[in-house]
Design brief:
Layout (H helix, E strand, L loop, with lengths): L3 E5 L3 H12 L4 E5 L2 H7 L7 E5 L7 H9 L6 E5 L4 H9 L4 E4 L4 H16 L9 E3 L2 E4 L4 E4 L2 E3 L3 H12 L5 E2 H8 L8 H17 L2 E2 L2 E4 L3 E4 L3 E2 L2
Parallel strand pairs: 1-2, 1-3, 3-4, 4-5
Antiparallel strand pairs: 6-7, 7-8, 8-9, 10-13, 11-14, 12-13
Length: 231
């Protein structure tokens, strides 16, 4: 079945380039020229991924992402004309799954989108029905997370990172190991990308009442925390 992608950019040339690149691979593409039109078109039951420009007039891509994340965990890949770290980190922390800077290679964009889609649909067949540690529970089959029975909404990549840590409690994962496990071979991902996703997971778990969801081991990487209730 062909993947359905929503492409949002105020530049008609960019929309045409992206549409052509994706349609060559058999994907079904719908487009929007601004944030408001994107929200009108977006359907969590239809669109499997959103390619979202950050720098749009009236409603920018970050605001569109915030609105989508209120109701859906559909993967989002940001596009931006600016290669500024604050944009990259902010985009990932509010729920983006990847980030590509303009000008970009259409082939690389397709490769990144395919990698995100693989992560979103792949579940480990031998995974147990439930994994738990402290108050944290993960259902690998249902791809759901809860802390003390309170649901925690994570993006597909955030889920994969947390599941990777939970699979080996006490083990310290380097950023490279997390990239290999969670990104399924994706390329050109900076270490700071992992740090941004870890911060995002911590914030969401803390909002659910969880203390020390992920611990930093300075100079090495990350490991699962105690996952105990906040005092």
């Amino acid at each position: 079945m062909a993947h359905s992608i929503l492409v949002v950019d105020d530049d008609p040339h960019i929309r045409d380039v992206v549409r052509f690149a994706f349609e060559k691979t058999g994907m079904l593409i719908s487009t929007a020229q601004d944030g408001k039109e994107a929200l009108r078109q977006f359907d969590r039951n239809v669109h499997e991924l959103v390619v979202l420009d950050i720098g749009m007039p009236e409603m920018d891509g970050l605001e569109v992402c915030r609105e989508i994340r209120k109701t859906a965990d559909t993967p989002i890949l940001f596009l931006s004309a600016r290669d500024e770290e604050i944009d990259r980190i902010l985009g990932l922390e509010i729920g983006g799954d990847d980030y590509v800077t303009k000008p970009f290679s259409p082939r690389e964009l397709v490769a990144r989108v395919n990698a995100i889609l693989r992560r979103a649909r792949t579940a480990a067949p031998a995974a147990p029905k439930a994994m738990s540690h402290g108050g944290l529970t993960i259902d690998p089959d249902g791809r759901s997370v809860a802390f003390q029975d309170k649901p925690v909404s994570l993006t597909a990549l955030e889920f994969d990172i947390l599941k990777t840590l939970l699979a080996r409690p006490g083990f310290v994962f380097t950023r490279e190991l997390i990239l290999d496990a969670a990104y399924s071979g994706n390329i050109h991902v900076a270490d700071r990308t992992i740090d941004s996703h870890v911060r995002n997971i911590r914030a969401k778990m803390a909002a659910a009442g969880c203390e020390s969801a992920i611990e930093t081991v300075h100079g090495v990487g990350f490991r699962l925390g105690r996952c105990e209730a906040l005092r």
